[in-house]
Design brief:
340 residues, Immunoglobulin-like, 2 domains, six-stranded mixed sheet, 4 helices, 9% helix, 40% strand, globular
């Protein structure tokens, strides 16, 4: 009996290990400029030269190695926010605690096991009040579970929304900002303020998973015309999912919500912290986007006919990247312009 039990355990462990892989990636940190809103540009340190940084997707149990090359003029690290770092604490990314900061021109390799699932993220941990809060040094990390919940298996479309704020007074000067009493005057989703946020296009009958990240600011996310089923907090499934039409988050928090697209039309989503829907005090800006149902014909006054300065990109909310599965996925729509 004991021998049979031992063999059974070995088979189960072997089956589990068979799904895990060693995944190696390389990432750069670059000095670039992005246009957040019409007429407002910010100098950032972009992971792979983009904001948000590239989407990293791995499977539960994978052994992950990420080599980071610092091509900027200041020190940086990467903290893998939400990763347990079991027996790999030296890859936690805290300067002068778990590692020396990555100096200009240097590289560092992070190694960890993806032993916590869900909507995680990564960000710089050097001078976080500037590098993280004002310079775009953050990106999404999704660890796919071996055994997804039944509701997760129903999902037909996914989107990542990362919320952040900006201070136009210091946006063009590295080393400034992140001071007490600082006033943020632009607010964005995936590095863009309305009307530069792209529409989120869906079909009637879609089951959409929104991965909401309060990267640098508090958020009260509201979706018109629909209820949201809140299923996960900080990547972890809730024992008792609940419906809401507004989801409040503090900086660093993540919520996953699932929406059944059963009400065709054009529907606004926005932050219900009122000044977060402005661009330097001007209304109809900031953390807003429009959900567009397929087959709906907008009127001539619809903002995307005249206000948007960018062609529509179906990967603005990283849904196309998520579909590609495990990998480090750059996104051209989020790339900045290299600084000379």
């Amino acid at each position: 009996m004991n021998r049979m039990l031992t063999m059974l355990i070995a088979l189960l462990l072997g089956a589990t290990a068979a799904h895990a892989e060693v995944r190696k990636f390389e990432m750069t940190i670059e000095e670039v400029e992005i246009e957040v809103a019409p007429g407002f540009k910010a100098k950032v340190w972009g992971f792979d030269g983009q904001v948000p940084g590239p989407l990293l997707v791995v499977n539960e149990g994978d052994q992950v190695e990420v080599t980071v090359h610092n091509l900027t003029t200041l020190n940086h690290t990467i903290h893998w926010h939400g990763v347990y770092q079991t027996r790999t604490w030296k890859s936690d990314g805290v300067p002068e605690v778990t590692q020396k900061a990555i100096e200009p021109g240097e590289s560092y390799t992070y190694r960890f096991v993806a032993d916590r699932v869900g909507s995680l993220w990564y960000h710089c941990h050097v001078n976080v009040s500037e590098h993280l809060a004002l310079r775009g040094m953050w990106g999404p990390l999704i660890v796919r579970p071996r055994n997804p919940l039944p509701i997760e298996k129903e999902v037909t479309r996914e989107a990542v929304l990362m919320f952040s704020g900006w201070n136009s007074e210091v946006a063009q000067t590295y080393g400034e900002g992140g001071k007490p009493g600082e006033v943020l005057d632009y607010f964005s989703i995936n590095g863009k303020s309305f009307p530069k946020t792209h529409p989120l296009r869906v079909k009637e009958g879609d089951v959409v998973r929104l991965r909401l990240y309060a990267a640098t600011i508090p958020v009260a996310f509201h979706l018109h015309g629909h209820d949201m089923l809140v299923t996960h907090k900080d990547g972890l499934p809730l024992q008792s999912p609940y419906y809401a039409d507004t989801v409040s988050m503090g900086p660093g928090e993540r919520y996953d919500v699932i929406v059944r697209m059963n009400n065709p039309g054009l529907w606004m989503t926005h932050d219900h912290i009122e000044h977060h829907t402005t661009n330097k005090g001007q209304d109809m800006g900031g953390s807003m986007l429009v959900v567009e149902y397929e087959g709906i014909e907008p009127d001539d006054f619809y903002y995307h006919h005249h206000s948007s300065t960018e062609p529509y990109d179906p990967n603005f909310y990283l849904g196309e990247s998520i579909r590609r599965g495990p990998g480090l996925h750059d996104s051209e729509v989020h790339k900045g312009v290299p600084l000379e």
